[in-house]
Amino acid sequence: MTQGRASKTNLASEYVAYIADQLSAHREVQVKRFFGGVALLANNIQFAIIMKDTLYFCVHPDNRQHYLDRGMGPFTYQTAKGTVSVQRYYEVPADILEDSEILASWMDIAMVDARQ
């Protein structure tokens, strides 16, 4: 096992461009740096993050089961004390990214959840 620095998501990465393009078909999306990744905003509301080329939507506890039912988990990262699980952001299933209508619906829900 090789140790090194964790990979970071670049604003100019192909994955970020693909996700921004997919989401922008529904509404205007802004892409900004966010710690080691990227934040996605619409109407000045941060509704998603991209970390290590993985998209996570903001999820209210009332909607979390939709993600869990599809086998998706929360955003996690490592610290010296162990793994931190960020329950506010859950990974978006890959098949959702490929269906623009369903993606738009999930994005709308993430926007509502981000306001709560």
Please name the defining characteristics of this protein:
disordered N terminus, 116 residues, 4 helices, Yope Regulator, Chain: A, six-stranded antiparallel sheet, 34% strand, single chain, globular, alpha+beta
Detailed description of the structure:
The structure is a single chain. It is globular, with a radius of gyration of 14 Å. The chain has a single domain, classed as 2-Layer Sandwich (Yope Regulator, Chain: A). The chain has a six-stranded antiparallel beta sheet. The chain contains four helices and six strands; from the N terminus they run αββββαββαα. Residues 1-7 have low confidence and may be disordered. Helices cover 32% and strands 34% of the residues.
The level of helicity is 25-40%
Q: Tell me, what is the CATH class?
A: Alpha Beta
Overall pLDDT level = 90
> What is the tally of beta strands?
6
CATH level-3 fold name:
Yope Regulator, Chain: A
What integer value in Å does the Rg equal?
14 Å
Element-level helix/strand string = HEEEEHEEHH
Second-tier CATH architecture = 2-Layer Sandwich
In short:
The chain is of the alpha+beta class and 116 residues long. The chain is 32% helix and 34% strand. The model is unreliable at 1-7 (pLDDT under 50).
